[in-house]
Each structure stands twice: as C-alpha cells, then as structure tokens.
Request: fold
Amino acid sequence: MRIYTRSGDDGSTGLFGGGRVGKDDPRVRAYGAVDEANAHLGVARAALADDAELDALLARLQHTLFTVGADLATPAGAAARAHLTPVTDADVEELERTIDAWDAQSPPLTAFVLPGGHPASAALHVARAVLRRAERDTVATARQYDLNPAAARWLNRCSDLLFVLARAANVRTNSAETLWDPAAAGG
Reply:
C-alpha cells in the first residue's frame, strides 16, 4: 500500500465507508482538528517520558481521539459504522470523573493560567486549544450532517481535562505556572 494515492489531487478526500467530499468540507475540518490535537498529545507524551501514569492516560486519550475522528469521518448509514464504537455519554461522564481526580493534584485556581511551564504542559495547552476548535467544527458540522451528539460533548470535556492535565504536568515536574496578570500587558 502506497502512502500517496493521487486521488485527492482534485481537492477531494475519501470518507471512511465510502464517498468523497471536498477537503474543505466541514466534516474534514472537524476530524482534521481532532487529528491535529492528537499529534500535540504525542508531543506532550514525548516530553513526559518519565511519568508513566500521565503517559498512560494520554495514550488512552489518543486512542479515543482516533475513534472520535473515525466517527466524524464515517457518514451515517455507512456499513463501516459497524466497525466503530463511538463515544457515548458514559465516556463523557468518565472524563468528568478523571477531571475531578486530576484537578485535586493542583493548587486551587486564583487567576487565569497562561500556557507554558514544562514543555509537556505547553503541548497540552496547545492540544486543549485545538480540541476547542475541533469541538466548534463538530458543532458546525452537525448542522449539516447526522453526527454522534456525544462526540462534541466528549471533545468539550477532553479539552477541560487537558487544561487540568497541563496544570498537573507543571506540578509533577516542579515547573512554574504563570498566572495572567492584566497589568503585565502594558499598553
């Protein structure tokens, strides 16, 4: 199997389960943003090689993100949907429990947090921001296509979790967290 097929040279791409759409189709934007966030999680994992617990959680999130992307890339009614196990509201609730557990590892918030600190924390913040875009793209796509409604909710909670994990990564690596100081903006 070759990596390149040339079939997309006309500006179209194939969906999982058949059919082609433009590369600028809302569905493609949504699952593309999910893929981008997944890549940033890979960067975060590479920076946290010594934290097995956090690495295992990020690995699970990467697998689930791939599942969400496949769900978004598969039209309703396509036979390929039989091979998917889409996220559900139970998965959203599991993320909420995970958020609560990891949030307890960081000091209480007293101000907005600026992305940064440890390289893994910075990568998690980037992934968080990309997931917010993926969520927005998914919501917009759902206006045009029949999508799994739990997907957007899962992306929302996952971005919340990544914020909490970015803070936890700084705590676990003894890296400073920078709080927003409106006076520091100058003007």
